[in-house]
Structure formats: structure tokens, C-alpha cells
Amino acid sequence: MQLSTVFNSITLIGMMIVIGVALARVTPINESTKKTYTLLIVNVAMPCIILSSIFKVNIDQSMLRNIGIVLILSVVINTIGIGIGWVFASSFSGNRRLRQEIALLSGLGNTGFIGIPLCAAILGPEGALYAAIFDAGVDIVIWTVGVMILKNSYAFSIVNIKSLINIPIVAIIVGLLCTFINYRPPEIFIDLSNQLAALASPLAMFYIGLLIMSKSENKSAIKTTNVNIFSPIFSKLVVLPIITLFIISILPIQMDVMINKVLLIQAMMPSLTLASILFTKYSKDEVFGAFATVMSTIISLVTIPSLILIFIKFKYM
């Protein structure tokens, strides 16, 4: 992995976030604005980056095996991250009130908005495909383990299963199905998916910038900056990547180097952008969730390249 590519990608992400902040200063920020960005990113740009990656990669039996490995390890890694956050929150009396929020913020990362575009920039189409599969694992954990924790109910339901059906997941299924039956769509469709895929990174970073600006102006959010906020941030940005490295090192199977890189990069992602929306839905502290997401995103601009540099130096990536 070229260090220059890593730092260029992180620098571009930072610059696009700054543009998002600037846009927020001249454009009214409301729920309609956020909803428009989210719809474009989740329902247009993200599916296209997934399809574009699938059409650019020659998927064989070995890659299908790798896809299965990434999906399983994604579920395992994210669930372990939630467990780490739960332990951290339970260890300090001041954190127990926010135990559920801290647990989810510690384990669930922004693997879609930031992770997939970053892996595409650093690792190419194959990396983007594995990153999308990892993100599908995050969705599985969100709507099963995550919802159970937020509802204090530990039983599966049809509603949770239905929540797993979204356009990015459908894009993965359709793309892989096309590969199975050896069908290649018309070139105009492939060109369209390639061009719309290019929107994913800018739109996602602009949205993060808007979120940062909107929360920085929220005085009640700023008041939550205390010891509680640093527990999930430290767990997500530092502890989970190290745990992921340990998991990779003890696995009894030999994995493709590309898989190792994707798993480590996705484990480094800041806390889930949609956390505050989830917390609102289940009557949890959405202000804490939003501010933790913003703070972890800003800090991750330093921790991601730093961890990648360390892992490359010791030949883990």
C-alpha cells in the first residue's frame, strides 16, 4: 500500500469535509437538507459504487469465498466492538446511563459513507467491493444486535429482518447475481454507474461537514463534551482496530492480503453517522450520539492515517 495514496485520500476527505462546513455556513441546515443528502448517498451513490466495483472486478470462486469471509468477520468484529463499548461503559458509574449508546458507538462505524469511498480510493474496485460487503455486515449487526440493545429486547422479529432490506444490499445481491449468471449490463448502464459512483465520496463528506456545522452550533450538544464522549471514541478509533488486527493474526485460515487491508481500514472508521437517527427512533440520547459521531469523525482524520502508517511499518498491511 502506497503511503502517498493513503495521505492523499485522507487529505481529500478532510478538504471535502471543510467544503461541507463552508456550505453549511451559506446554506440553511434543516431536516429536509439532511434527508436529501442521505437519500442521494444511500439510494443513488452507494449502490452505484457497489455495482461499479462489481463490474470492474473479475469475480471467481476464490473471490466468492473471500466475500463470505469478509461478511462473517464484519459481523464478528462489529459485535465485539459493541461488547467492548458495553464493558467500558459498565466499568464507570458515570457512563452507565449511556451504556447502550456508548456500546453501539464503540462498535458500529461509518463504513458506508466514509469506508467504501476510502477503500475505493486506496485499494481500487476490489477493495471497494469488500468494503461494501463489510458494510452489509454492519447493517446486519445494526438491525439485529443493535436494535435488541436499544429496545432491551433480545428476540428476533420480522420487522428487524425487513429492516435489512435496503437499496445498497439489493445492489450487492443484483451485482453478484449478474456475476453468477455471467451477465454484463449494457455499457451505457455501466458508464452511468461509474459516474454516479463518483458522487459517493463528495456527497458523503459534504454531509459530514453539514453535520459538524449543525452540531457545533448546538449548545446543548457542546455541553455533553465530557468523559462520556471519549469512551466510545477511544474504543472505536483505537481499541477496535487493534482487536481486529489480533483477530486477523489468530485466524486459522490464510486470508488474501486485500481482505486484511479492508478489515483494518473499515475497523478504523469513526462512529456511525446514522447513530443519532437510531437513538431518536428508540428514545435514546440522540444529542450524545450526534456529537460523538462528529467528534470521532474529526479525530479520525488523524487516527486513520496514523494507524495505517503504524500497520504498514510493522508489515501488517
UniProtKB/TrEMBL annotation:
The keyword Transport applies. One of its GO terms (biological process) is transmembrane transport. It is a multi-pass membrane protein. Pfam families: Mem_trans (PF03547). Keywords: Cell membrane, Membrane, Transmembrane, Transmembrane helix, Transport. The keyword Transmembrane applies. GO terms for cellular component: plasma membrane. It is found in: Cell membrane. Signal peptide: none annotated. The chain crosses the membrane at residues 6-24, 36-55, 67-90, 102-123, 129-151, 163-183, 195-213, 233-253, 287-312. It comes from the Bacteria. InterPro entries: Mem_transp_PIN-like (IPR004776), Na+/solute_symporter_sf (IPR038770). Belongs to the auxin efflux carrier (TC 2.A.69) family. This is Permease.
